[in-house]
């Protein structure tokens, strides 16, 4: 009888630990909202970036991805970014989708320009750079290695 009770206790502890892991994983996936103003960026390819992904300037989180949609007329990805209200970005700011390290998540990197005018709420970022998809890069390397694709001219 002692063995059965011990097994029940150990089983209950394992279930509680499992529940704790599930709750921890779920809480890490919560979309954090940022109060502020919205700007829009258009990309040809965004990879696996998720709703709620960080928007960063110089490595500092200044906003979040608020919406990701597809423009059905030209098949571009339209991304709405919510930026902190106290941050005024120059009108010539550039946006790119970048990976946070080798195995990190994707985020939107903003590179402020030198313009005196600022992006107003609802403005569109004019210059964007698409996400670099690892599979595309590996495919290009393989094609270069076997000689089916020409190397870029230098």
Question: How would you characterize this protein structure?
Answer:
Strand 5 (94-99) and strand 6 (106-111) form a beta hairpin. The chain has two domains: 1-30; 37-139, no CATH class. It has 154 residues and is of the alpha/beta class. The chain is 26% helix and 31% strand. It starts with a helix and ends in an 8-residue tail after the last helix. An eight-stranded mixed sheet has the order 7-1-4-3-2-6-5-8, with no helix packed on it. It is extended. The chain has helices at residues 2-28, 134-146, and strands spanning 37-43, 54-57, 60-71, 76-83, 94-99, 106-111, 124-125, 127-129. It has two helices and eight strands; from the N terminus they run αββββββββα.
Structure in a nutshell:
Helix content is 26%, strand content 31%.
Topology:
Elements: H1 2-28, E1 37-43, E2 54-57, E3 60-71, E4 76-83, E5 94-99, E6 106-111, E7 124-125, E8 127-129, H2 134-146
Parallel strand pairs: 1-7, 2-6, 5-8
Antiparallel strand pairs: 1-4, 2-3, 3-4, 5-6
Please name the defining characteristics of this protein.
8-stranded mixed sheet; 26% helix; alpha/beta; 2 helices; 154 residues
């Amino acid at each position: 009888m002692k063995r059965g009770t011990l097994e029940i206790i150990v089983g209950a502890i394992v279930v509680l630990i499992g529940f704790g892991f599930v709750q921890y994983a779920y809480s890490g996936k919560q979309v954090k909202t940022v109060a502020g103003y919205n700007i829009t960026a258009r990309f040809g390819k965004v990879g696996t970036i998720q709703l709620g992904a960080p928007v960063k300037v110089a490595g500092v989180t200044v906003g979040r991805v608020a919406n990701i949609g597809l423009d059905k007329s030209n098949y571009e990805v339209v991304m709405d970014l919510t930026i902190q209200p106290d941050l005024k970005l120059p009108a010539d700011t550039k946006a790119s989708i970048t990976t946070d390290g080798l195995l990190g998540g994707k985020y939107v990197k903003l590179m402020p320009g030198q313009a005196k005018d600022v992006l107003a709420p609802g403005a569109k970022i004019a210059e964007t750079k698409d996400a670099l998809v690892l599979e595309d890069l590996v495919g290009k390397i393989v094609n270069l290695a076997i000689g089916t694709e020409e190397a870029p001219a230098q």
